[in-house]
Input
Amino acid sequence: MDTEVIYNGRDNTIDLLFKADGTAVDLDSVTKVKLVFRPTTGNSVEVEDEQSTQWPIKWASSETGMTGKMLLRLGDQSIPEGLYMVDFIIYDTTNTDGIDWSGEDGVEIYVKGDATT
Output
């Protein structure tokens, strides 16, 4: 598993592609995305977005340039430094309680400390 990195205080993005049975999933009907950052110790941190065309999470194909692509820009979300397993909960009008797209373990993301320069 590759570890993605968030740089606090920076505009770096993480690009993800959501697939089902090898085919990119159309995310244009998604109404909300919730990321649950689970640390090895301590409390979870949640980032939630209902605007598919604005940061911190973009998923509309008109913004990402590709069906199934999600862009994360999380450097300004005040997530404490550390290693996290992140669950992706995807909501739409049919799945109002959300679908967990994390797989068995989630996605591993390391958050680097505050930018000073």
User: Anything to note?
Assistant: Helices lie at 61-64.
